[in-house]
Design goal:
73% of the residues lie in helices and 0% in strands. The longest helix is centred in the middle third of the chain and has 38 residues, at 137-174. It has helices at residues 3-29, 39-44, 51-56, 62-74, 79-87, 96-131, 137-174, 189-200, 207-231, 235-239. The mean pLDDT is 94. It is mostly helical and 241 residues long.
Length: 241
């Protein structure tokens, strides 16, 4: 397979995984509930739970949450060629910063599936609290506390590592260490995420929940789509011929 075909397949993987993860985010966490509508958590157990997370997925059915978790986790291998694709846009792929950014983004990709799937378990345990007799709540709340700790560690680690990687890539773009124009630094996922966040508050339901749940992967899709447009101008092929 020649280099051009490898790039095309990598783009297909990047766009596909972005769409799948965006869809997964909407299904597993694309809600925007008012915590006050659930006084069991916002009042009764407010000192024992993260109220925002405890109420976030109460409206999601088990099949919906499961689909959202699995479509992301099971398509995660496609993040690897997507990361390889980003690496190809470095002007000199032998430099330490090129290799470092590539490995950081790879680490973030490997960490991501567990954090994404963890939302399902948090949603289900708090649904169980909400729909069961009060006598069972102490045990379920303690289990939920453990699930939240797991989610915070897994998802926090993935997001933290990816943030470092994408910020570093944006800096490399600005310093002309890549084949990309400087304005592409604004289109990197971390920067785009910051730009999209305010949009959530301007949208009505259910769209505010969809955007809120899928901000990072909306940014991924926009980034790789823009990268594809630049590639069609043969920017990468010219540099490697």
């Amino acid at each position: 397979m020649n280099y051009s075909k490898k790039i095309n397949w990598a783009f297909a993987a990047a766009i596909t995984v972005s769409v799948c993860w965006l869809t997964g985010d909407i299904f597993v966490a694309g809600f925007d509930p008012n915590p006050d509508d659930y006084p069991l958590f916002s009042t009764t157990y407010s000192d024992r739970v993260d109220v925002e997370f405890a109420t976030l997925m109460l409206e999601g059915s088990t099949p919906r949450l499961m689909f959202g978790a699995l479509i992301g986790a099971l398509t995660a291998p496609l993040l690897l060629p997507a990361t390889w694709l980003v690496f190809q846009f470095f002007a000199d792929k032998t430099k330490w910063y090129s290799i470092a950014v590539n490995w950081i983004l790879l680490a973030g990709a490997v960490l991501s599936p567990l954090g994404h799937a963890g939302f399902f378990y948090v949603g289900e345990i708090y649904k169980a609290v909400y729909h069961t007799d009060q006598a069972s709540h102490p045990y379920l709340l303690e289990t939920g506390k453990g699930f939240m700790k797991m989610l915070n560690i897994a998802w926090g680690s993935a997001i933290g590592v990816l943030a470092v990687g994408w910020i570093a890539f944006a800096v490399c773009i600005i310093l002309k260490k890549t084949l990309l124009p400087r304005w592409m630094a604004l289109m990197t996922p971390f920067v785009l995420t910051l730009l999209i966040i305010p949009l959530k508050n301007l949208l009505p339901l259910p769209y505010s929940g969809w955007v809120g749940g899928a901000i990072f992967n909306i940014a991924y899709l926009l980034f790789f789509s823009t990268l594809l447009l630049l590639f069609r101008k043969r920017v990468l092929i010219k540099a490697n011929n």
